[in-house]
Design brief:
The protein is an all-beta fold and 119 residues long. It has no helices and 11 strands.
């Protein structure tokens, strides 16, 4: 079965950091571009970051650029999202998704992990 599982979410104070992980089971990620998405309370889902299958290319939303970093370790079948300088507006459910194409046409989605940034 093809499955993505996110982990690493939790409650963090403003200015803090979290690292999210996206682990694939049932398939290997080395041929897939991986995107990170989030859905904040009362807002539409938005793309946060994505990374090419090789890890050589990345894209970021303007709202997280210079604060978030997406990376991958294909040997571990895992993609990471390092989130620094977190703000309350970063609160939401974060999802990872896999695509055979670069940062588009995602076929597989995880269930999400909750990130809450609050004092």
């Amino acid at each position: 079965q093809l499955q993505l599982v996110e982990s690493g979410g939790g409650l963090v104070q403003p200015g803090g950091s979290l690292r999210l992980s996206c682990v694939a089971s049932g398939f290997t990620l080395d041929s897939y571009s991986i995107g990170w998405f989030r859905r904040a309370p009362g807002k539409e889902p938005e793309g946060v970051a994505c990374i090419s299958s090789s890890g050589e290319r990345t894209n970021y939303a303007d709202s997280v650029k210079d604060r978030f970093t997406v990376s991958r370790d294909n040997a571990k079948n895992t993609v990471y999202l390092q989130m620094n300088s977190l703000e309350p507006e970063d609160t939401g459910v974060y999802y990872c998704a896999a695509s055979y194409y670069f940062c588009s046409a995602y076929d597989y989605w995880g269930q999400g992990t909750q990130v809450t940034v609050s004092s």
